[in-house]
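SECTION: protein entry
WANTED: fold as tokens:
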Amino acid sequence: MPLLSTRGAGSAKGFGLTAGAGVKPFDADFLIVAGGAAGEKQNGGAGGGAGGYRTSFPGGTKVSIKGGINTILVGSGGTNVGSPYSAGGPGGISEVQGVTTFTSAGGGGGGGGSPGPGDGGSGGGYYGAQFGVGNTPPTSPPQGNPGGTTGAANGGGGGGGSANAGLGGTGAQSGGRGGNGSASNITGSSVTYAGGGGGGTYDNPGNPTGNPGPGGTGGGGPGGTAFANAWDGTNGTNGLGGGGGGTGANQAGQGTAGVGGTGKVIVRFPSAASITVAPGTNTIENHPGGDKLATFNVTGTLSYDGGAV
């Protein structure tokens, strides 16, 4: 008597079937942090805005994970072309593409951009009457806040953070503080993400009258100062979506603005679910509460083959 069927998962694909076909979707908690923006290279450059911050945990709308392959995007940090003076580049989006899709926008660059000075998940800082608009495009709850602005030339405003707006300088030739980020305990431990970059300040090297702005909590980089040749802004922290600090460049254009920090995506799911992630720099770990955590440090895929529902 002939053997009717011995095909396994590998041969099933040869018959037109795909992994996860017919598997019911399930809802999962998530944290999505986009890439932070770079700071501005200028005499008292503005700080970059933090990457957009969105989460379902605790108590928010969850993402629906489909059977088969779900694409996960992790935003890169913004960079700065740096010659001779320039606005900071925006951060990249982070996203979970399941049955439903949730997106966090990259941070807005310090000191400029279109349609405004660095609109984005959180806005970039500026000086004068303008600032980067946060929560662009709008989400509910808001994914970020505006950048700060300062009326004094030679002092840049701080980039916005997910919890607070960036601030202007507190006096002449002072950089503004980056807005603070938001704490999440989706992993079982509290981690703060998406802080804005601090504004730089142009101090005459022989007459240090101002102070650079500190970065916001959650990976925002402090601004630079021309005093003592400490021109460079500090980079935003990778994996936290922090904005980069603005420079304290002098008239010769020295100094490098801080680049934005990369984002992160975390999906929390029931331990019974059969899930794999790729590439290998992304991980699956046990959660203290009994669930599991898929952590994405780079763009990749989450494959679900059943078991959650």
Observations:
- The chain has one domain: 21-309.
